[in-house]
Design a protein that fits this description.
Radius of gyration of chain A: 18 Å
Strand content of chain B: 15-25%
Number of helices of chain A: 7
Structural class of chain B: alpha+beta
Number of strands of chain B: 12
Structural class of chain A: alpha/beta
Helix content of chain A: 25-40%
Strand order of the largest sheet of chain B: 2-3-8-5-7-6
Number of strands of chain A: 10
Oligomer: heterodimer
Order of helices and strands of chain A: EEEHEEHEHHHEHEHEE
Largest sheet of chain B: 6 strands, mixed, barrel
Strand content of chain A: 25-35%
Bound molecules: adenosine-5'-triphosphate, magnesium ion
Chain lengths: 229, 420
């Protein structure tokens, strides 16, 4: 069974009378341990697809199945719980809470999962060590570089060992060196078994994944597994 | 909303937001809370304190804790010497003041006011015959002398006047009160009681509020007043009894009644004797204070609302992200409730400290001198705590509502900064 499966996914936006169909029927399966890049030109619908898959938005038609379970009729609380425990998110801009230090940003969702403060801090420190931020634990986001913030955000996304890591253009705001670091981290995570779905613009980073799905005009244009090439 | 995880995460967020908020902003909000608290407690306390101040004045200057006055059928206290002797022998009695009271008139400028068309500068007054040293021990009368001086032993033909009898201190001419002009210590005035007239010298003039029982009285040593009244008995008109601090006035009254003093005099505690209507005035002032306080409460509520609203709006994207990664909306709402609670708690705590640590004891010792009375602050602890609860409640609601408005917005819209 696929870890996550998208069937007949349609998303349209109403703007008064006019209705814009952004996703026009997408079917996609991602298995456990896969690293999938989603590419396509700007406005193709990559982000929109990611929001539907990661339960941040409600599709107009179709369904998202997580481990075979439909999420169509799922209650809001259950979706929130699934995002908390099963998913991890890395956004394009670093998205750390400005009043919390790097460590505290990682601790917060762990506390929400019911971990004790000590346990949460230990897990968070380990996650931050993985992204080489041990020297920045106490820094507020405003006291970190863009690359450091994005690495802290990755630590927050993976600390609870999610089944699925979503990343929407995680390197878009970073310089080459920091981007390279982020992609390297993703590769390492993948090597350790982490399932990753990453949207990206950059051909080079897309090739870090084992599979590249190209979206165009709200449909899947191609779906290529690199090892099979 | 009140799950354990929500409370923990809400607390975690709140503590860090407060810790990292600008000290200036925090200080300002706490200051608003403090002012609101003082407005709630002190305004009412002062208004009530004005009325209590009026009452206290009667107690300390006239009645004491228990007061004896003539029975309705008499105009003096029967067998005064026996009553006094009995009362003096009772435990717990600190001071006793026995007074002769009679109506009379005083006239000034009678040597110059001789023209055929001039009106005599005279006014009615209550003449009070006192034992100067006992009266001073009882009410501290000497303390109130502003011009001239208090009686000394052997004074004869000397009077001390309340300020309302003197033109320059009184409210002016009123029916039944035409204050004396050009009267200073040393001035001679003419005193008439019944058919007897005496020329006396003004020895002192008091400084007390207009509604003090001393304000319109003529004080004179008792033997001379007795002579003016043409009395040869020793029966006085009023006996004020001051008990040791903390003594139970009602129990003392009942003791006197049981001992038969009730056959010679009317026995009342200060509370019995206080004119009816005073309690109503006190309640009215209390209500006015509460009305003023509730306006302050609304202002404090709006302040908190705006502060939290602006805080939440500027963090809307991060609230969206927090919800996106699975932080419950209730936890975020709680974090703002905790922040509001913090402001209210700090503001109220500082307020309580100022109130009971400084204001109440200080004003008790140095009442605020107002034309109407020497006001104190009446702030019973229970009433104050009620107001703290009110302030905290209002603050929590004022913090919760804006947080809820922002937190309930669509998660993705918040993350992307979209407005729908
Ligand atoms: N809320 C919305 N209302 C109307 N149209 C929208 C909305 N959100 C997205 N769209 C439209 O949907 C299309 C796809 O947007 P999306 O953000 O998914 O593109 P993308 O592939 O992620 O592009 P980029 O590479 O620039 O990030 C765009 O044309 C966009 O204008
Ligand atoms: Mg996009």
């Amino acid at each position: 069974m696929a870890l996550i499966e998208v069937t007949g996914l349609v998303k349209s936006f109403k703007d008064g009378e006019r209705e814009t169909r952004v996703l026009k029927g997408i079917d996609l399966e991602v298995g456990r341990g896969e690293f999938v890049s989603i590419v396509g030109r700007s406005g193709a619908g990559k982000s929109t697809l990611m929001y539907q898959m990661s339960l941040l938005d409600e599709p107009t038609e179709g369904d998202v199945l997580v481990e075979g379970r439909s999420t169509r009729e799922m209650a809001t609380e259950e979706e929130t719980l699934m995002r908390l425990t099963e998913f991890g998110y890395v956004f394009q801009d670093y998205a750390l809470l400005p009043d919390l230090s790097a460590l505290e940003n990682v601790v917060l969702p762990l506390l929400m999962q019911g971990k004790s403060k000590g346990e949460a801090e230990a897990i968070a420190a380990r996650a931050l060590a993985k992204v080489e931020l041990t020297h920045r634990l106490k820094n507020l986001p405003s006291q970190m570089s863009g690359g450091e913030q994005q690495r802290a955000a990755i630590a927050r996304a993976i600390a609870h060992a999610p089944k699925l890591l979503f990343a929407d253009e995680p390197t878009a705001n970073l310089d080459r060196q920091s981007s390279g670091q982020v992609v390297t981290i993703f590769k390492e995570l993948h090597a350790a078994g982490q399932t990753i779905i990453m949207v990206t613009h950059e051909e080079e980073y897309a090739r870090a994944a084992g599979r590249i799905v190209t979206i165009d005009d709200g449909k899947v244009l191609s779906d290529v597994s690199l090892s099979e090439q | 909303m009140f799950s354990l995880a929500n409370i923990r995460v809400g607390w975690y967020l709140a503590v860090r937001q407060i810790r990292r908020a600008s000290l200036y902003t925090t200080g300002l909000i706490v200051f608003v809370m403090l002012l609101t608290f003082l407005n709630l407690v002190v305004v009412t306390g002062l208004l009530v304190g004005i009325v209590v101040g009026i009452g206290n004045q009667f107690k300390s200057q006239e009645t004491g804790d228990v007061v004896l006055s003539p029975l309705d059928t008499k105009d003096y206290i029967v067998e005064t010497p026996e009553v006094l002797a009995f009362v003096q022998g009772l435990p717990g009695v600190e001071h006793i003041a026995a007074r002769y009271l009679t109506g009379g008139t005083i006239e000034a400028n009678y040597l110059t006011n001789t023209g055929p068309n001039t009106v005599a500068n005279e006014t009615g007054a209550q003449i009070e015959g006192i034992d100067p040293s006992a009266e001073n021990a009882f009410s501290g009368l000497a303390r109130y002398v502003k011009e001239g001086s208090y009686f000394s032993p052997g004074d004869y033909d000397a009077v001390i006047l309340g300020p309302q009898l003197i033109d320059r201190y009184s409210f002016g001419k009123q029916p039944g009160l035409t204050p004396l002009e050009n009267v200073y210590p040393g001035t001679k005035i003419r005193l008439t009681v019944g058919g007897a007239t005496r020329d006396v010298v003004v020895k002192g003039i008091l400084n007390v509020p207009a509604n003090s029982p001393l304000a319109a009285r003529v004080f004179m040593p008792a033997p001379e007043v007795r002579a003016l009244m043409q009395r040869d008995d020793q029966n006085v008109t009023e006996i004020g009894i001051e008990l040791a601090p903390g003594a139970d006035a009602a129990a003392f009254r009942d003791l006197l009644l049981r001992s038969g003093v009730g056959a010679d005099a009317k026995v009342e505690t200060f509370a019995d004797a206080i004119p009816s209507g005073v309690q109503e005035i006190q309640d009215t002032f209390g209500a006015i204070g509460n009305a003023v306080g509730s306006v302050g409460l609304v202002v404090a509520g709006i302040t908190i609302f705006i502060v939290i609203f602006i805080n939440a709006v500027t963090r809307r994207k991060f609230i969206g992200i927090a919800k996106g990664i699975g932080i419950a909306g209730g936890a975020i709402e709680l974090s703002y409730v905790f922040q509001s609670l913090f402001y209210a708690a700090i503001g109220s705590s500082i307020g309580l400290l100022i109130l009971y640590g400084f204001l109440v004891p200080y004003i008790d010792a140095h009442p605020i001198v107002l034309p109407i009375s020497n006001a104190i602050i009446v702030a019973p602890v229970l009433g104050t705590l009620e107001r703290v609860a009110l302030l905290v409640g209002a603050t929590v609601i004022a913090g919760y509502l804006p947080a809820r408005i922002i937190v309930r917005k669509n998660t993705l819209d918040s993350i992307l900064g979209r407005n729908t």
